[in-house]
Amino acid sequence: MRAYFEGWYVKQQSEDSVIAFIPALHTTPDGQKAASLQIVTPGASYCVPYPDMELGAGRLSLRIGENTFTREGCTLCAHAKGVDLEGRLSFQSVTPPRYDIMGPFRFFPRMQCRHTVISMAHRVNGGLTLNGRAYRFCSAPGYIEGDRGVSFPRRYVWTQCSFEGGSVMLSVAHIPYLGLGFTGCIAFVYLHGREYRLATYLGARAEAVDNHAVVLKQGRLCLTARLLRAQDAPLQAPQGGVMRRVIRESAACRVFYRLTEDGHERFSLVSDQASFEGAWD
Q1: In DSSP terms, which residues pair with 33 in a beta bridge?
Q2: Which of 51, 77, 127, 160 is the most exposed place for a label (fewest CB within 10 A)?
Q3: This prediction's pTM
Q4: What residues form DSSP beta bridges with 55?
């Protein structure tokens, strides 16, 4: 049996708070299954282990313990050492990309990791409490993506931010494949109903990349993301189907984004509620 993991990233933003949930299923090469729910806040993270996860039909339909996640919303109930979580959130106007973010790479067999974007932008309503702190969301921005495969890439940079009128996501990674490897990138800027997409399969290339900044160019388009101030916390990531790798993510940090077309600025933003992971060393 091949090692395997499948996980989702469900993020909510408001003017004064950010919280994300990462339910994940992982299987070792000898067939042992386990699951986990990670909770990510600015500067802190928590992980609750579970013996398994129930998966339903569709791109997001799962139950882990007493927690459920669907495209319509989530019910939260987790009580473990250091974690006291209760709440309910509803999602409206879920907006997937025009087509699979992996493009033709979704058909390639035995890739180390496959990425999916379930919602570039939607509205979040409801509330929750985590360890006595209340989080309230009233038509707040939300974002959902997922990953599945064997392991996270050894080297990668990822960032995402929602804002009034849309969202932005960018990922650059070293992709091992059939004994070789290449640098792949996928990104979008969703702006007032229009999707700008940059990807390796569309001719995009990383002009510059390190743990703090990425510049992507694709024809007339240039997308820049630069980490200005981090506030990271440890997260568990899959390696060989097991959540044994530790990475650092800033769930809410200051990041600068800019998209230009033929040298003309189409989008520019500095946000303190961006998420950023850098593992390019």
Answers
A1: 27
A2: 51
A3: 0.96
A4: 62
